[in-house]
Design brief:
alpha+beta, D-Maltodextrin-Binding Protein, domain 2, six-stranded mixed beta sheet, three-stranded antiparallel beta sheet, 14 strands, 39% helix, Solute-binding_3/MltF_N, signal, Transporter substrate-binding domain-containing protein
Length: 254
């Protein structure tokens, strides 16, 4: 039994470590930077009906690849499989609105932060004064909708034990659940709240909260290689200082 337990323990340890994560030199030798994007989080990255992608981090993925002297390859992933796909070496760097969390930081490197955000509610405009605190939302009669596998679901699980929480699988269509009165509220990052409120003007609105419910940082999440992190951080620091990232985000939010 001890031998079996030991084998299980070794397998568990190995499953938490990238088996063949590529270094910067390997990426350059291959000539391709593989960028993981969920494609369901505007204005960072959104997959259109024709299969194409648009968004600030779609633009940034191309710019980063050019800075490294390679081509870009977009690798589809999901919030639920984001960690497993990185550890399985399916992509080199995740972009598209990834929140820095301790569990993610324990297995791979984050770049310098691209921005600070926080969770806020989005509701039908008639309800914008109704859901202004966590307590307002955490009631049995309130229908909370959330996308699976990311920090939105973690926030809902931790803060809404009494509300009626429903996981909806498609983050691109989830806001129509509120618009069509099949749900009352979703709590997500402020950037997405503001974007969806503009896209659905007059129907969906940010709740009139005095401040975000929490604060979090967004960054790019990559295979653990010091040379890769240095190269990404150097490029990103210059990109942020020049205002190029902010302009790309503003353009994608139009």
């Amino acid at each position: 039994m001890r031998k079996i337990a030991g084998v299980v323990g070794i397998i568990a340890i190995l499953s938490a470590v990238p088996a063949a994560a590529r270094s910067l030199s390997a990426i350059r030798q291959d000539g391709t930077l593989r960028v993981g994007l969920t494609g369901d989080y505007a204005p960072y990255a959104l997959r259109l009906p024709d299969g194409s992608l648009k968004g600030a981090d779609v633009t940034m993925a191309g710019e980063l690849a050019r800075a490294l002297g390679v081509k870009v390859e977009i690798v589809p992933t999901t919030w639920k499989t984001l960690k497993d796909d990185l550890l399985a070496d399916r992509y080199d760097i995740a972009m598209g609105g990834v929140t820095i969390t301790p569990d993610r930081a324990s297995v791979a490197d984050f770049s310098v932060p691209v921005l600070v955000d926080g969770k806020r509610p989005i509701v039908r405009c008639a309800d914008k004064a109704r859901f202004v605190t966590v307590k307002d939302i955490d009631k049995p009669e309130v229908r909370v909708v959330v996308n699976p596998g990311g920090t939105n679901q973690r926030f809902a699980d931790a803060n809404f034990p009494h509300a009626s929480v429903r996981v909806f699988p498609d983050n691109r269509a989830i806001f129509q659940e509120i618009a069509q009165n099949r749900a009352d509220v979703m709590v997500t990052d402020g950037t997405e709240v503001d974007y969806q409120s503009r896209v659905n003007a007059g129907v969906l609105c940010p709740a009139a909260v005095p401040d975000a419910f929490n604060k979090n940082e967004k960054a790019f999440w990559m295979s653990r290689d010091p040379a890769l992190k240095t190269a990404v951080d150097d490029w990103l620091t210059k990109t942020l200082k020049s205002g190029a990232y902010g302009r790309a985000l503003a353009k994608a939010a139009e």
